[in-house]
Design a protein that fits this description.
Blueprint (H helix, E strand, L loop, with lengths): L5 E6 L15 E2 L7 E2 L3 E7 L8 E5 L5 H10 L7 E5 L4 E3 L8 H9 L4 H6 L13 E5 L5 E5 L9 E10 L4 E3 L4 H4 L7 E5 L4 H9 L22 H10 L4 E2 L1 H10 L10 E2 L8 E2 L19 E2 H12 L8 E4 L12 H6 L4 H5 L4 E5 L2 E4 L12 H9 L1 H22 L12 H13 L1 H12 L9 H15 L1 H21 L1 H4 L1 H4 L9 H8 L5 H8 L3 E2 L31 E2 L9 H36 L3 E2 L5 E2 L5 E3 L18 H6 L1 H7 L16 H17 L8 H14 L8 H13 L4
Parallel strand pairs: 1-10, 4-11
Antiparallel strand pairs: 1-11, 2-3, 4-12, 5-8, 6-7, 6-8, 9-10, 9-12, 13-16, 14-15, 17-18, 18-19, 20-21, 22-23, 23-24
């Protein structure tokens, strides 16, 4: 499993290598029938798991790299790691077979590179100028940094830097799941661009600024952007539930599979001349005592997470976080429903707060890890805030490997029995949906002004409906649609049978129901998907209205003109589990087609909107006096956002409780105080100071028996946090603001 900031470049076969290279352009296709003329760039398919020949880097020959470059020249362009070109002041030599790049020729070229032995033996006689001008275009190799981009590039994180690892045998780019939401990518044929920086300045920026770990926060709102998804969420919930116990072998295997020892800085001991060394980095991991000693020692899944947290944050103060989970506390209880009715002792249930995750000083005390722990103010977000983005990246990588390994041990399969409803509840469901049929007659009577008790022939009512709609026009039809949708929602949304059907009526209890676990934990889908499979599809809408009628008054030719039944207007009582009738299937396809058309139309509109915004705001930036100015120095804002806080740092500025609990960590990260003599920013913003004082007042009233927090100490803590959260000079806030408007516009329907 890859780290979240890693990208694997996959090695192709020799007969797929490019036929010709020039020093300045690269002509090669990673995907057949797609050809690009781009310098040091490529296009490839993205898979969850590129061709090193397709990327070449100009490496100037120096005494420190001459040995490796000589080996690359000897390998030529057909063997990785090799080289495609050698260039000096007098000539350029192509190192492939078609251009005379045979073994003897490559040996002759390699000898033209100066050797390190000659430099050492004849120090002072060989000038450094002899190395200048000699350039080898080598293949991409492990450890190189590349810029990865998926179009459309709607915001800053759409281009990130990844570290390369080259494998053999495939042609696609393998990337980590945690970066999918950042690129808005999936693996159904998406193509991504890879660019290879050529000079050291670009590589330094890629490693330190554009690095994928540094793009954790969303520039729009400061919310977390990277997270584990799908199978990892399911595995996390299964591992951390209360009744998951592991043997000593399983506990150690899971910790080993997380791969954290590879990121640690353990001590190494070996004697001079020995090829074998001993590392004790693994021994530094804290070993928890078993949670159960008899009849055999067993460890809990929560202890695995606690051991991992202690290892990731060792050498730093521990952290504490409390966050509500998506899974309710009673989700994994699988007792029979009859037993629940006769249970009178609820004190123990109230004491259990498994729906609220608590990590106290790096120990997972209670709660289940689900989608919420990878979102706002969750476990990973807190690690990123207090320990930095690199630690958060290592933590995500370790969690992904850990959860993948546990899911392989545990197993997870969805079946038809997960979708079935009990016989009694299914009968009630059918009765409730059949009661919706009378709503159409009721609403149409109100529409034409006929009393409920009055007898009226169906044909006469249809004629009256037609007359009113044709006389009043579109407004009357829209009013009728709104009334029908409102009354149907009242029946289907407020009736307890349909509302609680998927929580109480499923045949397989929620703790063992895989579909329920996926939808409730946030791994994949939602209750609407579960409802459409097991219960009913509901009202199909087109542009916020019901399915429109044709000129004849029919929505489909099989219905009577001006039919009053909800089914004729697109209300589907069928479900996917027992199949749809042809009419319902057609209505459902109409709603799906509308989504495709909207996507195609809004892309061009939102793209032009974003371009206009960027061209108008591209010159705005933060200056050294904390003002926002344009290209000619005109002041747009005296303080960026009126408080000067960077958007990426806004999340925890107002989380007073989290800051007070982790005070030691805040001081270890933020060691700057407000400069009272500064003419620009010399005090806390009024809103932030007022919120902090209110928190101190409320906290002191709740903690009467214990030592209350000192007012001055907490305000000093907030000053440290505020100063460290200010926007840096040179921040292109105009472009960020434009992207923050344009990127969400593409998601609107």
């Amino acid at each position: 499993m890859l780290g979240v900031n890693k990208m694997i470049t996959l090695h192709t076969r020799a007969n797929d290598a490019p036929k010709e290279h020039s020093p300045f352009t690269l002509e090669h296709s990673l995907v057949h029938n797609i050809h690009k003329m781009i310098s040091f760039s490529s296009l490839s398919k993205a898979t969850p798991i590129f061709n090193p020949w397709g990327h070449q880097k100009q490496k100037r020959v120096t005494p420190w790299n001459v040995v490796k470059l000589r080996d690359a020249v000897l390998n030529g362009s057909e063997t990785h790691p090799g080289a495609t070109l050698y260039a000096d002041k007098s000539s350029t030599i192509v190192l492939n077979k078609e251009k005379g790049g045979k073994r003897d020729s490559r040996i002759h070229t390699a000898r033209r590179l100066q050797s390190t032995r000659g430099v050492i033996m004849h120090h002072g006689k060989i000038h450094d100028q002899e190395f200048e001008g000699k350039i080898v275009y080598r293949h991409l190799k492990d450890g190189d940094v590349v810029l990865v981009n998926r179009q459309p590039t709607l915001h800053k994180p759409s281009i990130m830097a990844h570290v390369v690892r080259v494998l053999k045998g495939e042609k696609t780019v393998r990337m980590h799941y945690a970066n999918c939401s950042t690129y808005n990518a999936d693996f159904d044929g998406d193509e991504i661009n890879v660019h290879f920086p050529q000079d050291e300045i670009s590589r330094a920026e890629a490693y330190n600024i554009v690095n994928a770990n540094n793009q954790y926060m969303k520039p729009t709102s400061g919310e977390p952007l990277r997270a584990l998804i799908q199978d990892h969420i399911v595995s996390a919930a299964l591992l951390t539930k209360k009744d998951t116990f592991l043997s000593c072998e399983q506990f150690n295997q899971l910790l080993y599979s997380s791969g954290v020892s590879m990121t640690g800085t353990g001590t190494f001991t070996c004697k001079p001349g020995q090829k074998i060394s001993m590392s004790n980095s693994e021994s530094e991991m804290f070993l928890f005592p078993p949670a159960i000693f008899k009849p055999e020692p067993l460890w809990t899944g929560k202890q695995v997470i606690s051991a991992l947290l202690r290892y990731i944050t060792k050498g730093r103060p521990p952290f504490t976080v409390e966050k509500n989970a998506k899974l309710p506390s009673s989700f994994f209880k699988t007792q029979m429903r009859e037993e629940k009715k006769h249970t009178t002792d609820t004190s123990r249930e109230k004491e259990e707060h498994e729906d609220k995750l608590l990590i106290y000083r790096n120990d997972l005390v209670r709660g289940v890890i689900d989608k919420a722990q990878f979102g706002d103010y969750g476990m990973v977000h807190t690690v990123q805030e207090f320990y930095g983005s690199n630690t958060a990246g290592i933590f995500l990588s370790a969690l992904s490997r850990l959860f993948t390994n546990f899911l392989q041990m545990h197993g997870f399969t969805c079946g038809v029995d997960d979708l079935l409803i009990t016989e009694g509840k299914d009968s009630e469901r059918i009765a409730e949906l059949e009661s919706c049929e009378i709503i159409g007659d009721k609403v149409h009577r109100e529409f034409i002004g006929v009393m409920k008790d009055a007898n009226i022939d169906p044909i006469t009512m249809q004629l009256n409906v037609e007359k009113k709609i044709r006389s009043d026009g579109e407004a009357a039809a829209a009013h009728l649609d709104m009334q029908m949708i409102s009354h149907l929602n009242d029946v289907t949304g407020k009736k307890a049978v349909l509302k609680n059907l998927l929580s109480e009526g499923i045949l397989k209890p929620s703790g063992k129901n895989c579909i329920s676990l996926m939808t409730t934990s946030g791994a994949k889908g939602g209750m609407i998907n579960f409802q459409q499979i097991s219960s009913y599809l509901g009202q199909q809408t087109l542009e916020g209205k019901r399915v429109p009628n044709m000129v004849s008054g029919k929505s489909l030719p099989c219905f009577p003109s001006w039919d009053c039944s909800p089914r004729a207007g697109g209300f589907i009582t069928d479900r996917f589990l027992t199949a749809l009738r042809p009419q319902e299937y057609y209505f459902h396809c109409m709603a799906g087609r509308e989504g495709l058309v909207d996507t195609a139309v809004k892309t061009s509109r939102s793209g032009y909107l974003q371009r206009c915004l960027i061209k108008n705001l591209e010159s705005l930036k933060v200056c050294y006096d904390h003002t926002v100015r344009d290209a000619d120095g005109s002041i747009i804002q005296f303080h960026y956002g009126e408080d000067g806080v960077d958007v990426h740092q806004t999340s925890f500025v107002t989380k007073f409780e989290a800051l007070s609990i982790n005070e030691e960590l805040v001081y270890s990260n933020c060691c700057r105080q407000l400069d009272r003599s500064s003419p620009y920013i010399n005090k806390l913003p009024d809103a932030l100071k007022g919120g902090a004082e209110n928190f101190i007042r409320d906290f002191s009233s709740k903690q009467r028996n214990s030592s209350s927090m000192k007012h001055a100490d907490f305000l000093q803590l907030m000053e440290h946090k505020y100063v460290s959260s200010l926007a840096q000079p040179g921040e292109p806030v105009g472009v960020l603001a434009s992207q923050s408007v344009g990127e969400p516009a593409t998601q609107m329907t």
